[in-house]
Amino acid sequence: MHGPGSIKVVAMKRTLLIFLxxxxxxxxxxxxxxxxxxxxxxxALLQRISVYEPTYxxxxxxxxxxxxxxxGNTLPNGQNLNRLEVKFQISFKVAMASSGLAKSVYAAYTxxxxxxFYRDSAFFRETNYQPExxxxxxxxxxxxxxxxxxxxxxxxxxxxxxxxxxLERSWNRTCADLIFERLDAGGDGWEADLRAWVVWxxxxxRRYNPDLAYYLGHFRPSVxxxxxxxxxxxxLHNQLESAFRRGSVEASVSHYLGDNWSLYAQYFNGHGxxxxxxxxxxxxxxxxxxxxxx
Length: 294
What we know:
Layout: H1 4-28, H2 32-39, H3 44-48, E1 49-51, E2 56-63, E3 84-95, E4 105-116, E5 123-135, E6 141-144, E7 147-160, E8 170-183, E9 189-200, H4 203-208, H5 212-216, E10 219-227, E11 230-237, E12 248-258, E13 261-271, E14 281-291
């Protein structure tokens, strides 16, 4: 049993840790002015690094029905999952070169973590790692009525939780995206990304999660609307393919605060909140901060 004094000390330490994480993310990311300076002759590496998938930190993320059963006896001290936790995602891509054809070839990396931060002994219940080879030309072709179309291809996308044994979750894919944009000069307007993939049914996939694609599908459409400081996004996983019987919907809204930061809220409902519970359905809500990507 912890006394009031020790509880206050723990709360202060955790608040300080959250502040340090946010400060580190902010310090590591260039401001708009720094990015413009890099593009006009700054450090070569800085010119080639950019945000890929949304990058955010949610100090309050609440899952209404976490999947305790899947973890068995692997959780510290035999405890159940706390419904309130911290969720964050880091995602970036690095161009292979700053000019020529190679500038359209990227090495990308996305990491999503679920941190049981509010437990007496905090631990990461799940982290998903996704390195990716990406080909994303800047070209856009006009379709008329203000719409442009582009594409990108990911010949190799690996995603796993790195656990091994019965808790291992892993798959490899080849992905392709069609990107539709209707944006004004200030970047306001509509974006739609239609991503489809082929699953590599290799031995690891067949051994650890042979029905993963049944729940997460082969198609992920997303739609984003931007207006002024506001941005609204909806992402569907396997909803259309399964006639809304499986998969998930994830919606987010953000409001730009300045200096590359946005206030960010996220809603999730369905299967595949993380790889380890891909066949478990839950609903979750989170609030925090995101890095602005435009």
